[in-house]
Amino acid sequence: MISPITFDQLTGPPTDLELLDLLEFQLTKSAELFIAEVVKKGFSIDSLVFECTYSPILARAKITNKSSYKITFGRTLTGAILHMATSIAPGLQKDMKGCSEPETIRHAFNYISWLIFLHEVAHITHGHLEYIQSNGSNDYYEVNNQRLPLTHLHIDLEESKRFWRALESEADAYAISASLATFSYINTNVWWNQLKLGAMTRHHGAMASAAFHLMHMLANGHDDFRHPPANIRLGISLASIETLAKKMKWDVATTVEETVKGHYFMTSDIMGLDVDIKPQLESAHYMLTLDYVIKRAGFAKFRIPTYLD
After folding, report:
1. What is the pLDDT of residue 309?
2. When you count CB atoms within 10 A of the terminal residue's CB, does the N or C end of the chain come out lower?
3. CA angle 191-254-182, nearest 5°?
4. With 0-12 CB in 10 A as exposed, 13-18 as middle and 19+ as buried, what is 147?
């Protein structure tokens, strides 16, 4: 179990700038390849650029022109991911047999980064940016550390919150299933390639939990109007893991169960956070209303045309 990591620790200066530069370079190359081989071949998009910058922003997705987009990761975000990866690495090594601590840190950085990158891709491919633009904003800051005014999606604030959280839940659902299916783009760890399916999905649940908790921590304890709490985000995303398991002809119950076990392993055993059943019940209730909220919000007319079946 790690000592509770604080906002100041997450956002403090990187301890290894040379390593962070290398990890950002590898992430950028992997993202560019994924965009070329998957996104542009699957969706009607003219241009999608990914970049890591020294900017103090976290993650931003932006419309740059008609059918052209940019995803930016700031050094504040990549530095926080590296801090998180370094903190959880000793706990992860209990499962990652034969991996050194530096290997484990690189693996954790790659995994968390890939989940967040695919979450941003989903905001683009699902037409979320056009939907937000129709309400007055071309930029979308994943965690608004720029102190920009929140763009409301409905005149009623509770309805606006429901619409925002529906957008985020769609992006989470895509990210948690697509990252498991495409982690080979960023993976440099031999250990991962030798895992059996159950162990792989358990580890995936753990890393998704780490990513969601990281984003929650970067909100610095403030109520996040747009994102559900971390435990609820993972619970909501389980439906997409079930869908992926059916598509891949995996045992559905085992896949979902192992993902949940991984989530509990990361949250309770490694991070030392309390885990109770209430968020899971809340996420189940939320899922019952999600489709209705998406329909009510009118997201469908903003979807990016797809070439995929």
Report:
1. 45
2. C
3. 45
4. exposed
Residues 6+ away with beta carbon under 8 Å from 295: none
Domain boundaries, the chain: 7-298
pTM for the predicted model, two decimal places: 0.90
Sign of the C-alpha dihedral computed for residues 166, 170, 175 and 180 taken in this order: positive
Structure tokens of 2? 């790690």
Chain mean position to CA 263: 14
Helix (H, G, I), strand (E, B) or coil at 222: coil
CA 291, distance to chain mean position in Å, is: 21
Cβ atoms of 191 and 94 within 8 Å: the answer is: no
Q: Residue 160's closest CA among 116, 215, 226?
A: 226
**Contact partners, residue 309, CB within 8 Å, separation at least 6:** none
User: Which amino acid type is present at position 25?
Assistant: F
Burial track 220-257 (b if 16+ CB lie within 10 A, e otherwise): eeeebebbbbbbbbbbbbbbbbbebbeeeebeeeebbb
Q: 21 with 34: CB under 8 angstroms?
A: no
pLDDT in tens, 86-140: 999 999 988 898 899 999 999 999 999 999 999 999 999 999 999 888 887 767 7
